[in-house]
Structures are given as structure tokens and as C-alpha cells.
Amino acid sequence: MKYASMTLRATILLVLLALMFTALLLVLPPARREAVMLRIERGSTLSQIAIQLRDQKVITSTNVFRLIMKIGGRDRMIKAGTYSFPAGISTLQAANMISKGQTIARKVLIPEGRTMRQIADILASEGITGAEDFLAAAKDEVAAREAGIPHGNFEGYLFPDTYLLEPDSSARDVVAMMTRRFFEVTASLGKSVSPEALHRAVIIASIVEREYRKADEAPLIASVFYNRLASGMPLQSCATVAYVLTEHQGKPHPSQIFYSDLQIDDPYNTYRYKGLPPGPISNPGEVALRAALFPAETDFLYFRLLDDGNGVHRFSRTFEEHTGAPIRTKGL
Known about the structure:
The chain folds into 3 domains: about 80 residues, Endolytic murein transglycosylase (Dna Ligase, domain 1); about 80 residues, Endolytic murein transglycosylase (Dna Ligase, domain 1, 2-Layer Sandwich); about 130 residues, no CATH class. It is built from 12 helices and 8 strands. The chain is mainly alpha-helical. Strand 6 and strand 7 form a beta hairpin.
């Protein structure tokens, strides 16, 4: 009995020592004086992550890390991404960061109506990806076709939104993220169309986006363009001329369009060429996409901006109703 009692006490002591040692590993940080940047890839196993953390001296024990991750199901809440682990954090704190997805991602706003070149500049200024890398990814014809885009590149399909993006992200991943968002939004609008019909609507939406000021007028503006197409008239959108000036000629965005600009020989100039331009002239938001898919039913053929302040347009059925004031463009 005495031997059994001694054995029991020894076992309890060993268990207590093991628990104390584990507790120390949980709360005591490794001997590291600098922050560690580490990327956890999507699909990484718990063991792979534990080894990464140990090798970078973020944790001291892979076994203790795996144990704490399994408690409470943290191992099922692992968030991929790039993490910055400060010096002096414990294994428990590192586990909490990973399970809560506390990556170094930042919020980046992509406004409606920007071109892919302008989006590239925004992303570069935020340190997300290089402008040239983004443009190369956005102009990848093969990737565009694989994404279900029937023509050329991703212009028009880079949905404007606020994104959580990490510095030094893959340009292809960012393009894919924005494109997925585009198809999510268009699917939510509730109109099923072929890729070709959707592309036509995206071109219209990209023009509407650069023309409307008030959301409730977007379907009316879309109706004007559809009516002009149906009647064989040129679209005569000043937004397409502004696109030629900025994207093809490299000029600053104009405050107004001059009649000399209307003579520029460019297939995107809808004053000179009938029908739709070869592709979208911007990346439209939900208001413009909805307007292009569900235009108002009107017989309007003209519109002009009445008031710069409130953005109200006047819509006309005949040229006589439509006065020839200077043509203004939607500012950036």
C-alpha cells in the first residue's frame, strides 16, 4: 500500500509538472526581439503551420501549439493570410491571432467608374501590388476567357468595392477577387443572360457609370443609349471621348469636352462610330449594372446635364428639345 501511494504521488507530481511546463510554454514568449512576418497559405495543415511558427521562433513547441489550437475548435477557424507576429507574444497569443484572422490586410476602396489603369494606380499607391503587374493580369486574355469573359480582358469586370487586401499580394489573385465579386453582384440582380449579352450590358453600364450623377436617373440614361442603338443613331457619349483622351492619349481627365475632341478618330469615340465601343470604358458599380440590365422604358434619345450642383439631367425626345450647351463630363 505504501509503495502504491508513493507511485500515485509521483504520477500526480509528474502530471502537475507537465501541466506547469505546458502552461509556461503557453504564456512565455520565445527568445525573439523582432517581429516576424509569416504567410499561412490556404489549405495548410495544423502541423505545417506549427512547424512554420516554430522555425520562425514564434512558438517554442509545436505540440503545445497544436493542443491549444484544438481546444475550442481553433484548428477549424484558421485564416490564411500574412501575419505580423510581434516580439514577445506567447504561443497562446499567436494561436488567438491565427484563429481570429488578424492578418496585416488593409481596407482598400476602389470607387465606381475607374478604369483598370486607375485601379492599378490605387493598388500600387496602397502597396498591394505593382501597377504594371496588375495591368498585365487584367489584360490576360486567356485568364479572362477562363473567367467567363468573352472579349479581351477584365476591363468592366473589376467590381468597385472596399476590399481587404494584403501588401505584396499577387496581382492575379486581386483580379480574381474583384472578378468574383462582379459575378456575385450581377447574379444577385436576378437576370440570367448569356456571356455575350452580359458583356453588351457591361459596356452600356460602363458608359452609364461615367454619365449619371443621380442613381434614379441611371435607368433613364441607359434607355437613351438602348434607344439610340435600336434606331441606328450613334451613342454620342462624351464619356467615351473622355476615355479616349485619358486612356488612349494619356491626357488628364477633362472638365468638359470640346467639339474638336469629337473629331478624334478612335473606335471608342461614339460620336464618330456607331454602335457600342469595342469594350467597357470603366468598371461600373451596382447602380449602373442594374440600369443596363433593367433600363427604363422610354422614347428618349437625348439628355444633358442641367445642374452641376445636384446632378439633374434633362431628357428629350427630339433634337429641337435638346439644347447645345457645353458638354460636361462626370468628374473623378
